[in-house]
Fold each of these.
Amino acid sequence: MKITKSVFLKGAINKEQWIDDEISEVLLLGRSNVGKSTFINYLCNNKQLARVSSSPGKTQMLNFFAINDNGFRFVDCPGYGFAKISKSIKKQFVKMMDTYLLERRNLKLAILLLDLRRTPNADDLLMFNFLRERNINILIVTTKLDKLKKNDISNQERIIKETLLIINHIDIIKTSSISKIGYDAVLEKITEYI
Ligand SMILES: Nc1nc2c(ncn2[C@@H]2O[C@H](COP(=O)(O)OP(=O)(O)OP(=O)(O)O)[C@@H](O)[C@H]2O)c(=O)[nH]1
Ligand SMILES: [Mg+2]
């Protein structure tokens, strides 16, 4: 698949604002600053598409993007695990994500983004297990491959797999927004699910 067109549709906080149709959605999940918005922009070759945060924790809604007209939608969401946001915003975030993950029939694939340099933390594990327990299709994508030394890459990949206790049928795709490595593989995977 090639992405030839990408358009921002809307932001939504409540489920009443979701789009009512049958188009498949692919959700981008991950800690604040892992690179969710950057990932969408580079994959779509459209740097103005999703706002890349200068101050993490800012995007507090789900943002919907139409890909290849009605091919499918990307859904960008706020990062989790950002310490400095207030309790009430955190509560709102948890409610918004729970509702989407549990009730959204359009959701066909959740892409969990992990920074390849970091060991997955408690929040990552919580999210990963939440998705697994609810049988949501998961693709794990690591970001910032360009920031690692060659010798450290396989070691970090092993640490991530061990921490998440990854079973064999869950793939990990390593990506970098600098070299654009891994993007074709991600697009190929997406087509299997939408
Ligand atoms: N070197 C490098 N930098 C990256 C890569 N991906 C993202 N970044 C940088 O990481 C920072 C955070 O990226 P965002 O896309 O805003 O992260 P986010 O996950 O959307 O953050 P929130 O919306 O706050 O949850 C930006 O400065 C990006 O340029 C990558 O593959 N390589
Ligand atoms: Mg973002």
Amino acid sequence: MTFEPWRRLWKTWAPQKCKFFLWLAIKNRCWTADGLARRRLDHPDRCPLCDQEEEDVQHLLSICVVARKVWFQVLNSLNLGAAAPRNRERSFAEWWRKSLQKVDKDNRKGVNSLILLTAWCIWRHRNACAFEGVSPSAATIFHEVKNEYGLWCMAGAKKLEVVGHGGRFLS
Ligand SMILES: [Zn+2]
């Protein structure tokens, strides 16, 4: 693992809890099914979002068909659809690095915040599906991304606000 994702992660505007989650995710230390299985704990047989493949956090964040739908919706609404994860990304960190190459330099900081925000919403929805019996839905996650975007902008995420065209993303 190179130094680079950590530097980018800690420099991005996002609440500390989201950065910490992504830090664990990149290190494969989240409580997804693979980690639970390694510890011989109860775990879902398949990803709680797509119900198709075994779950690990790289699947959940960048490979899962439900997650990819969300990434496409979020990024495409900012005309960045080309940066969305493709079929069979290797890992979240690898996709993140590649996707930034498709983003204008001026917008990268804002897009980094948006990527953390979206990953956070995917994770929260995954937990709601796994523990609260919520039905998985890309539309619900997209809705939560827009809500969270409003909150982060209010809390001072200036570059994120610029990338979201000052709230037009919300409409
Ligand atoms: Zn999945």
